[in-house]
């Protein structure tokens, strides 16, 4: 049986939904109402140029002129990092150690700021401060990170219940799982 020290709602968000978001690239085409989801690491491996080019909205890049080996390597490595982060989220959130879960959330909360900063630098201030210009990659990188960041800090602060106070950690004998 899997144990976690996180309260139920944060456990669902950080150990189920967020890892799935690491693995999913959501491509919403509002004009034709097509919504497709594909595994991010597959996208990075099957179409690394598209993954690279869509980091900034309204790009006019073409693969032959704007996708050197360095960009290919970074795109493929980023896909691997997303897969690693999904695994780490599950491992740390299902840990029976309250300090592991707490410090994982704190570390990732600080990493969220770097993620938002990277997106801001990449798109520039005109696009960053005008959400009407954002594509799905910017929405996920900025708004998604900001929402998850707020949720992380609320969890660490105990708003959803104390980390380590999950009743699911009780064994049949009534003792806490270590």
TrEMBL record:
Highest rank taxon of the organism: Eukaryota
Pfam assignment, any one: DUF7704
Domain DUF7704, first and last residues per copy: 36-162
Keyword Cell inner membrane: no
Keywords: Membrane, Transmembrane, Transmembrane helix
TM region(s), chain numbering: 6-26, 78-97
Keyword hit for Ligase: no
PANTHER family recorded: CHROMOSOME 1, WHOLE GENOME SHOTGUN SEQUENCE, EXPERA DOMAIN-CONTAINING PROTEIN
Protein name: DUF7704 domain-containing protein
Organism, scientific name: Cryphonectria parasitica (strain ATCC 38755 / EP155)
